[in-house]
């Protein structure tokens, strides 16, 4: 059974390319609002559901939060692959930090991993907002995954 995101109520949530900017447990300022430290956020869900969801080839998208969950599951998988050859904590930390600092492709760019899952940005500002959500140096969810996995 595929696990879906519990963040289905989308009223008042800003979106960039159909991707919701859901609250994150973070002290870093970014485009996503800050969540309570006691409440589960989308990154917690991605980490919790990773083992189960990674085995499914098909995923029935029920909300835009599910799209974000798919992207985060993919990112966790990429992070784990980067850690495969690391023999020490220092090597692993360096590999993950470097991954978090890489350029983030947005929908419509050839290197974006999920063509068709997210709509194309309607403006350069929307594309920039999505990049900010996923870039580590701007306080996005990629940095939150790195911090929680180390």
Automatic annotation (TrEMBL):
One of its GO terms (cellular component) is Arp2/3 protein complex. It is found in: Cytoplasm, Cytoskeleton. Component of the Arp2/3 complex. InterPro entries: ARPC3 (IPR007204), ARPC3_sf (IPR036753). GO terms for biological process: Arp2/3 complex-mediated actin nucleation; regulation of actin filament polymerization. Belongs to the ARPC3 family. This is Actin-related protein 2/3 complex subunit 3. Functions as component of the Arp2/3 complex which is involved in regulation of actin polymerization and together with an activating nucleation-promoting factor (NPF) mediates the formation of branched actin networks. It comes from Prunus yedoensis var. nudiflora. Gene3D superfamilies: Actin-related protein 2/3 complex subunit 3. It comes from the Eukaryota. Its main location: cytoplasm. The keyword Hydrolase does not apply. One of its GO terms (molecular function) is actin binding. Keywords: Actin-binding, Cytoplasm, Cytoskeleton.
């Amino acid at each position: 059974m595929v696990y879906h995101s519990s963040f289905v109520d989308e009223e008042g949530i800003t979106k960039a390319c159909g991707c919701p900017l859901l609250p994150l447990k973070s002290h870093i300022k970014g485009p996503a609002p800050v969540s309570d430290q006691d409440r589960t956020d989308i990154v917690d869900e991605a980490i919790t559901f990773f083992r189960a969801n990674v085995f499914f080839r098909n995923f029935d998208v029920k909300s835009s939060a599910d799209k974000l969950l798919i992207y985060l599951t993919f990112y966790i998988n990429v992070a784990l692959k980067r850690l495969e050859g690391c023999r020490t904590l220092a090597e692993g930390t360096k590999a993950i930090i470097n991954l978090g600092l890489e350029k983030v492709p947005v929908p419509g760019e050839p290197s974006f991993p999920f063509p068709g899952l997210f709509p194309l940005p309607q403006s350069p500002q929307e594309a920039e907002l999505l990049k900010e959500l996923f870039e580590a140096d701007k306080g996005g969810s990629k940095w939150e995954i790195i911090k929680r996995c180390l």
